Amino acid sequence: xxxxxxxxxxxxxxxxxxxxxxxxxxxxxxxxxxxxxxxxxxxxxxxxxxxxxxxxxxxxxxxxxxxxxxxxxxxxxxxxxxxxxxxxxxxxxxxxxxxxxxxxxxxxxxxxxxxxxxxxxxxxxxxxxxxxxxxxxxxxxxxxxxxxxxxxxxxxxxxxxxxxxxxxxxxxxxxxxxxxxxxxxxxxxxxxxxxxxxxxxxxxxxxxxxxxxxxxxxxxxxxxxxxxxxxxxxxxxxxxxxxxxxxxxxxxxxxxxxxxxxxxxxxxxxxxxxxxxxxxxxxxxxxxxxxxxxxxxxxxxxxxxxxxxxxxxxxxxxxxxxxxxxxxxxxxxxxxxxxxxxxxxxxxxxxxxxxxxxxxxxxxxxxxxxxxxxxxxxxxxx
Length: 382
Description:
It is a single chain. The protein has helices at residues 2-24, 336-381, and strands at residues 32-36, 40-42, 47-52, 59-64, 72-74, 82-87, 96-104, 107-108, 115-123, 128-131, 136-138, 143-149, 155-160, 163-164, 169-170, 172-174, 179-186, 195-202, 209-211, 217-222, 228-230, 235-237, 242-248, 254-259, 267-270, 272-274, 277-284, 293-300, 315-320. It is α+β, with helices and mostly antiparallel strands and 382 residues long. It has three domains: 2-120, Immunoglobulins (Immunoglobulin-like); 124-221, Sandwich (Immunoglobulin-like); 223-320, Immunoglobulin-like, CATH 2.60.40. It is elongated and about 135 Å long.
């Protein structure tokens, strides 16, 4: 009991000394802070905050903004003279901004840079993230990402590889889609912008408590030119099967097929080395008119999957609509001539039906008139 009381008393003296020294000025270089696995973590998960001070640091203190007491103290450990602060299961009370300070015989250090700890999964309404153009962007180009939500979050934020990427944006209610929206514009994209993006929602009064994440959106940056994508017949009928061939004489681990103007994720496919070149066949079954458009392919290597080659030469794919009103399956479309014959037959049947109906009505009217005349004559004879 005495030991515990003495330890607590000593801690209070150190923290008081720390506060006084901090007010006067830090005499040592500021330590560095790092969060593992990152500063954006899921509620309930395990995480560690590291504070690395000077080599002669004796103790490091972790302070959370708004708290009157230190969040924790640790003795730095070798190698690297790092102090380890473990959180077995993060909760809402852990969200906030942290700094650390280290003490040595020379005095207290300057405060570290602020580390913001954010908890996700607090709110269950998931936003949706998409690209207003294609998620495949040419290096130096621009891209705009759209985050929307049915929930009226006051802020939407974009992350890349689970780290905050851009400043949060105020949401706007869009009446046409009946959702709240925020747009994130990235100008002059570089290879640093490639990767996996997500967006989250939160409220102003709890900026470190975020919603569950959106589905991931992968952004690819294109680079060198590929040989091309080929399709012998680029005009097909609805219901046909189509195969687009992407090929390159340079080494390519994965090919990606992208449709111009499509905001959805492009299709990746592992390459095969055949006939002295790398190839991938993208097959589409029972195509519809929605498939029509301009296609390009890109290549990437496993060492940098989000860094792509330049686009191949484009291929225009046109899907002609179904012919006539035949009940045949899509794999057996009717010819144009047969369709026209069937259309004329239906039109003739409709015309004949109308003519028969008109003749019937006229016959009834004539019969009624004749009957009325006969009845009038009989009445006159009487």
